[in-house]
Amino acid sequence: FNGFGLVAHSGALVTALRVRVRHVSAAGMLGEGAGSLLKATRVLVDGTRTVGNDGFGAQAWLGAKLVLQSVRLHGNREVGLTANGSGTSVVARGLVVDGTLPSTASVVQGLGIAASNGAHVELFGTVSIGNRHAALAAAHLGTQLVARGVVTADTVADSSSSFIGTGLNVILGAQALLTGARLSRGQLAGLFCSGAGTRVGLSDCVIDA
């Protein structure tokens, strides 16, 4: 491992309370492997400064779980919060993800929150603002994104050529369910849904310019 802040690996448990992680290069928080659990409360991760790819605020993959309470992921690289892989899960309450920057290697993306390849993400009272490409994103069959009381705003384009600047971007067979959400000021669209088998459900939501 190189350039991480907090790491829960191979079934380990990490509990962080009132912690700041700043200026790391790979990810501020990482959960990796089945049974790994990282619980963060009142944590700030900011200013990752990788010289290549990555630079995530928080990352869960290969079956790990993140539980986030009153966490802010600010000014990180490529993706503020990413969950990848079957069996991987994130539950977040009172999460703020803002100002995510593109990776310095590819100079693309800068997503707020992204779930992919069968991961499951639940968000409660979350704000994703001032990010790039998509404030919320879900991709691939088996991926589920459930959000209640979520606000997205001011999502702008990155330098790639497609599907940029959306509040919610769901593609390639993923599923998303939003309740009581507000999707504001996405450069391309409030919601973009594409691909056979892709499903999005909205209830009591507002999409505005």
SSE arrangement:
Elements: E1 4-9, E2 13-22, E3 27-32, E4 37-46, E5 56-61, E6 65-69, E7 72-74, E8 79-84, E9 89-93, E10 96-98, E11 111-116, E12 120-124, E13 127-129, E14 134-139, E15 144-148, E16 151-153, E17 166-171, E18 175-179, E19 182-184, E20 189-194, E21 199-203, E22 206-208
Parallel strand pairs: 1-3, 2-4, 3-5, 4-6, 4-7, 5-8, 6-9, 7-10, 8-11, 9-12, 10-13, 11-14, 12-15, 13-16, 14-17, 15-18, 16-19, 17-20, 18-21, 19-22
Model description:
With 209 residues, the chain is mostly beta strands. Helix content is 0%, strand content 56%. It contains no helices and 22 strands. It has strands spanning 4-9, 13-22, 27-32, 37-46, 56-61, 65-69, 72-74, 79-84, 89-93, 96-98, 111-116, 120-124, 127-129, 134-139, 144-148, 151-153, 166-171, 175-179, 182-184, 189-194, 199-203, 206-208. Strands 2, 4, 6, 7, 9, 10, 12, 13, 15, 16, 18, 19, 21 and 22 form a 14-stranded parallel beta sheet that branches. The radius of gyration is 15 Å and the shape is globular. The chain starts with a strand and ends with a strand.
